[in-house]
């Protein structure tokens, strides 16, 4: 027979996980493992097979584990010979340890998780003692238990060991955590689970409280089902334990120092959370069912998308609860919640996330199916986006809309498998065991508070009704719904259990139902106590930004002396700091700009705007995939010491060194994500109106990946929910011959979304304009999203530069009229109207053609449309007969179809409106430079030539 430590032993095959655990323990304390294993690991530490040379005891873990893998691959005896029965006691102990490891790895597969009991237990021989050659005769033998937490004794019989393992890992809670690479984290979870056998030991009062929460969950749904027949509410029935989970989470969080809980969830069970967790008055919910609406909202939204805030009492003190508004895009709320949490944490100075807790509630199908989940998880441990860990709760009703077969709903074993990418533990729990749900939830919260990392509670339950209350799920899932029809309900099962235990009277469950029904009939609070007069010192007063009349005007000018001071600060680096030679030239040029010796370029205009704001107390958060340097190497907000030798030093940010007591300036090179990062920044801006929050696309085209955020939050959040946001999007836009994905930020899409003064759409054309625009965003007394189509070639173009005096005396101009003094107004018969870079192409072409009877007007702000400013400019030309809109974009894209009616409204009778630009196209731009140049030449010819094609007459 092979020796237990022989590299050819099957121990290194199926039992390799046990070896890894032993090695983890050895690295922590060599004396904690048996002598034979310690000798083996000591030898392995100095083995050339590991790293080819002598090494100390802190040998890297990965190469050692790789050596285990290689030994397993070389092994030709992966299973023990059937005749081999003379295992020594030491070898049997090794196999007992292998059983322990197997349950920790695989026990969740045998856990009793499904209330419907539809699936047979899988064949897992690794969980049977016989797999390791252990027989019934061995079950009462005593083995070492020093590597477990089941007992304080050093030994247990194998029978007791297996019983404890099955109770811990295969009962109502199935824990997945062995994918975590940190041994200390795994041991923490093992200790918490094994020391209690993953079995609740709640007193009678807590059990009654849990029953009350489950009763409330069921009671609300049944009340609504009978009172508002046929109305959609996306019932929680079948998942009532979720309300007990939320209650336990909030109450336990309060004892752990949490002061705010921000919740994101889709529509399933949302009304239940509003009433039974946040304490929304039932009578207010009933009024919404009966047609009441908020007259202050331009559009409003359905009741199961709405958010709510409240304050509740916990044993640790008041906790503020906020349920984020969420459209029907389910998981899109994930990054929005994380951004809101980040803003609140930074407002509190909560660097580790101890006081503000994000909670994400998922559906099983959406959690596995929607990419924004992965994108948001990928933010979790990054410096600019980490929130100290999120508690994820899955309402796993085992059916995605009408799909119940996992082969069709996902490609993974569990719906939660995506979280393994960030090594988050998962606690699967049977929804028919409310106590186990509460235990798993409290454990998850403790894990988050201990390690500041994400954790998942997967409540396996069912959906009693259809996707909505008008659906008939048995049409497609007859077997599943036959079982659901036979299920008595979680509340009744738990009430009967407590009655059997003597915790409540035999009819006590019915009394709970009557009490809740009475609360519904009276329309009173079902959460006790809700604090109606509590006000946190960290709450934001939004009233100063509400009900403000729109204005384009703002006093954004800065005195010349202050501009020069700011310019000196942003061009100064420490004496021992060595910038790159390119950056040195940039800084030298900017010093000249600050002194008024040369015109400012775009980057300097930005920097002076940022510097002036932080000096005035406005924090700035600028993020994007290359925002520190700038995609087009124009910004250089983050400078890198060319002498540095480590990653974590040698960085200098001038904008963080403007003046004593300045506001923070944060610039983050984000992960390669648009949807999650833009959603995060929207959430941040909606929670903090006093910070200028900017998301910058690498190319404006890439904002396509975040279209849901733009459509469902940025453009419509105020109209639907009354939620204001000052989020600024910087989207590089311009036709430079770079092809379909590097030309257009899709101006037309944003303009189609414009109404009700919901946002600002702007395309500035010089450095002074971007300076005043950025400052205007914060100085005006209201908050609206700002979409800036920023340039590419104009970033350094001399024509787009501005004198320093325009920053000291000017303001943002929504329209810029003709600037060439040689164009006499009384000779002008045609006006070319345009926006963006094409302006410079037009004026250069006019100069080359020696034309002096065509004026050019720039539309800098497309929405809200500046009617008065346009009308004023057009009236300057008494002989004006033709107005031509000129654009880079194809005719079916860009601003043309949006601006037509606005221009006609401001034109005089008889004047003609025409279009000059590219023909309609399915693609945003051509991919061939030669074709691009041909089109550019043609559109300029059309601008100055005879009117033809699309012509409108006022």
Describe what you observe in this structure:
It catalyses: N(6)-[(R)-lipoyl]-L-lysyl-[protein] + 2-oxoglutarate + H(+) = N(6)-[(R)-S(8)-succinyldihydrolipoyl]-L-lysyl-[protein] + CO2. The chain is α/β, with parallel strands linked by helices and 954 residues long. The protein folds into 4 domains: 10-171, no CATH class; 204-522, 3-Layer(aba) Sandwich (Rossmann fold), CATH 3.40.50; 560-809, Rossmann fold (3-Layer(aba) Sandwich); 816-953, Multifunctional 2-oxoglutarate metabolism enzyme, C-terminal domain (Rossmann fold, 3-Layer(aba) Sandwich). Helix content is 38%, strand content 13%. The strands form 5 sheets. An 8-stranded mixed beta sheet has the order 3-9-10-8-7-4-6-5. A 7-stranded mixed beta sheet has the order 14-11-15-16-18-17-22, with helices on both faces. It is globular. The N and C termini lie far apart (99 Å). Residues 1-14, 48-58 and 71-87 have low confidence and may be disordered.
């Amino acid at each position: 027979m092979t020796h237990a430590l022989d590299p050819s032993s099957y121990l290194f095959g199926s039992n390799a996980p046990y070896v890894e655990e032993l090695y983890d323990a050895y690295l922590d304390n060599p004396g904690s493992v048996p002598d034979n294993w310690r000798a083996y690991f000591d030898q392995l530490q100095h083995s050339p097979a590991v790293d080819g040379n002598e090494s100390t005891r802190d040998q890297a873990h990965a190469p050692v584990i790789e050596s285990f893998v290689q030994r397993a691959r070389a092994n030709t005896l992966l299973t023990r010979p059937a005749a081999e029965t003379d295992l020594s006691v030491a070898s049997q102990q090794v196999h007992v340890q292998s059983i322990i490891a197997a349950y920790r790895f695989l026990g969740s597969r045998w856990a009793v998780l499904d209330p419907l009991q539809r699936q047979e237990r899988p064949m897992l021989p690794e969980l049977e003692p016989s797999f390791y050659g252990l027989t019934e005769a061995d079950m009462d033998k005593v083995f070492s238990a020093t590597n477990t937490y089941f007992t304080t004794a050093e030994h247990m019989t194998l029978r007791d060991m297996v019983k404890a393992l099955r109770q811990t890992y295969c009962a109502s809670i199935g824990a997945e955590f062995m994918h975590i690479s940190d041994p200390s984290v795994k041991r923490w979870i093992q200790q918490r689970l094994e020391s209690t056998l993953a079995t609740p030991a709640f007193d009678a009062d807590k059990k009654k409280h849990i029953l009350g929460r489950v009763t409330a969950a069921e009671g609300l749904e049944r009340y609504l089902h009978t009172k508002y027949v046929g109305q959609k509410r996306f019932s929680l029935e079948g998942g009532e334990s979720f309300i007990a989970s939320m209650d336990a989470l909030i109450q336990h969080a309060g004892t752990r120092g949490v002061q705010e809980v921000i919740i994101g969830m889709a529509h399933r069970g949302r009304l239940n959370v509003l009433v039974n967790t946040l304490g929304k008055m039932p009578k207010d919910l009933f009024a919404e069912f009966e047609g009441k609406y908020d007259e202050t909202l331009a559009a409003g939204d359905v009741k199961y998308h709405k958010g709510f805030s409240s304050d509740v009492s916990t044993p640790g003190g008041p906790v503020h609860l906020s349920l984020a508004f969420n459209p029907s895009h389910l998981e899109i709320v994930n990054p929005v919640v994380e951004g809101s949490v980040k803003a609140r944490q930074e407002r509190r100075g909560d660097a580790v996330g101890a006081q503000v807790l994000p909670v994400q509630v998922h559906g099983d199908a959406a959690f596995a199916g929607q990419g924004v989940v992965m994108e948001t998880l990928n933010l979790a441990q990054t410096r600019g986006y980490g929130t100290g860990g999120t508690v994820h709760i899955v309402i796993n009703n085992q059916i995605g809309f009408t799909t119940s077969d996992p082969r069709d709903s996902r490609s993974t074993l569990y719906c939660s498998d995506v979280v393994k990418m960030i090594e988050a533990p998962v606690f699967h729990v049977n929804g028919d065991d409310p106590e186990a749900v509460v235990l798993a939830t409290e454990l998850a919260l403790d894990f988050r508070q201990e390690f500041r990392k994400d954790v998942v509670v997967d409540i396996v339950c069912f959906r009693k009704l259809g996707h909505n209350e008008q659906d008939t799920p048995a049409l497609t899932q007859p077997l599943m719904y036959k079982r659901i029809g036979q299920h008595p309900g979680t509340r009744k099962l738990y009430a009967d259990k407590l009655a059997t235990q003597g915790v409540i009277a035999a009819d006590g469950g019915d009394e709970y139902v009557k009490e809740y029904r009475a609360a519904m009939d009276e329309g009173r609070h079902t959460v006790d106590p809700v604090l109606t007069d509590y006000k946190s010192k960290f709450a934001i007063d939004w009233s100063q930004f509400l009900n403000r009349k729109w204005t384009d005007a703002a006093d954004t000018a800065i005195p010349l002396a202050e501009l020069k001071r700011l310019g000196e600060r942003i061009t100064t680096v420490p004496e021992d700091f060595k910038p790159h030679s390119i950056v040195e030239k940039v800084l030298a040029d900017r010093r000249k700009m600050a002194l008024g010796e040369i015109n400012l370029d775009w980057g300097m205009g930005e920097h002076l705007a940022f510097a002036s704001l932080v000096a005035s107390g406005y924090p700035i958060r600028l993020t994007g995939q290359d925002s520190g340097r700038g995609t087009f190497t124009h910004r250089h907000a983050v400078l890198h010491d060319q002498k540095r030798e480590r990653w974590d030093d040698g960085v200098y940010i001038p904008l963080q060194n403007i003046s004593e007591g300045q506001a923070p300036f944060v610039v983050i090179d984000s992960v390669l994500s648009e949807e999650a990062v833009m959603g995060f920044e929207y959430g941040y801006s909606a929670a903090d109106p006093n910070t200028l929050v900017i998301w910058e696309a690498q190319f404006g085209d890439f904002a396509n990946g975040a279209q849901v955020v733009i459509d469902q939050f940025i453009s419509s959040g105020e109209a639907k929910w009354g939620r204001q946001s000052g989020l600024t999007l910087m989207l590089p836009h311009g036709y430079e011959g770079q092809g379909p994905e590097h030309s257009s930020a899709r101006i037309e899409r944003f303009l189609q979304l414009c109404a009700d003064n919901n946002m600002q759409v702007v395309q500035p054309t010089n450095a002074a304009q971007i300076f005043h625009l950025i400052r205007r965003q914060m100085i005006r007394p209201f908050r609206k999203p700002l979409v800036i189509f920023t340039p590419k070639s104009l970033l350094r173009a001399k024509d787009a530069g501005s004198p320093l005096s325009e920053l000291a005396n000017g303001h943002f101009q929504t329209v810029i009229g003709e600037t060439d003094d040689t164009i006499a107004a009384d000779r002008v018969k045609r006006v070319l109207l345009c926006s963006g870079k094409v302006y410079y192409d037009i004026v250069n072409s006019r100069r080359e053609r020696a034309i002096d009877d065509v004026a050019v007007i720039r539309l800098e702000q497309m929405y809200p449309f500046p009617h008065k400013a346009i009308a004023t400019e057009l009236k300057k030309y008494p002989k004006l007969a033709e107005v031509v809109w000129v654009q880079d974009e194809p005719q079916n894209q860009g601003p043309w179809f949006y601006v037509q009616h606005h221009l006609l409204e401001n034109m005089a009778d008889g004047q003609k409106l025409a279009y000059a630009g590219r023909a309609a196209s399915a693609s945003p731009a051509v991919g061939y430079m030669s074709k691009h140049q041909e089109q550019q030449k043609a559109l300029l010819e059309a601008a100055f030539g005879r009117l033809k094609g699309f012509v409108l007459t006022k």
